[in-house]
Amino acid sequence: MGQAAIYLSLHKGCEVFTTVGTPEKRKFIRDTFPSIPEGHIGNSRDTSLEQMVLQQTKDRGVDIVLNSLAEEKLQASICCLTRDGCFLEIRKVDFLSDNLLDLSILSKEIKFFGVLLDNVFLASDEVKTYVQGVDKIM
């Protein structure tokens, strides 16, 4: 999912930030996506991604976060959003475990969506056909 999102984002001309958990994955990102600067690749094992993104964007933040991080790293990801940004959560674990979310983030007027990918893959052909025909999303 992450690599597909990176490909699509770069194709659309977006500035991309990503996180990795190992030096090998960092090398893979650098080799596969050479247009992503080293300073845009953060650590997925701690909350330093927040400082990285805010520093690189001069405290503006990013417009969209596609998140698969949990707990305090999820909170750090939310803090990376600009005002009126869009947060897409693709992990079910935090939803199913009913983990708390710091509601002060709503003061940034962000949009928060839970994307349950298994529902997309398990959807009926009728629903998949409908979704493929949608060309405007509000």
Q: What features would you describe in this structure?
A:
- GO terms for molecular function: fatty acid synthase activity; oxidoreductase activity.
- This is Fatty acid synthase.
- InterPro entries: ADH-like_C, ER, NAD(P)-bd_dom_sf, PKS_NRPS_Biosynth_Enz.
- Residues 1-137 form the Enoyl reductase (ER) domain.
- There is one protein chain.
- This protein starts with a helix and ends in a 5-residue tail after the last helix.
- Helix content is 41%, strand content 18%.
- With 138 residues, it is of the alpha/beta class.
- The longest helix has 10 residues, at 2-11.
- The protein has helices at 2-11, 23-32, 48-56, 71-79, 93-96, 117-122, 125-133; strands at 18-20, 41-43, 62-67, 81-89, 111-114.
- A 3-stranded parallel sheet has the order 3-4-5, covered by helices on one side. A two-stranded parallel sheet has the order 1-2.
- The protein is built from 7 helices and 5 strands.
- It is globular.
- The protein has a single domain, classed as Quinone Oxidoreductase, Chain A, domain 1, CATH 3.90.180.10.
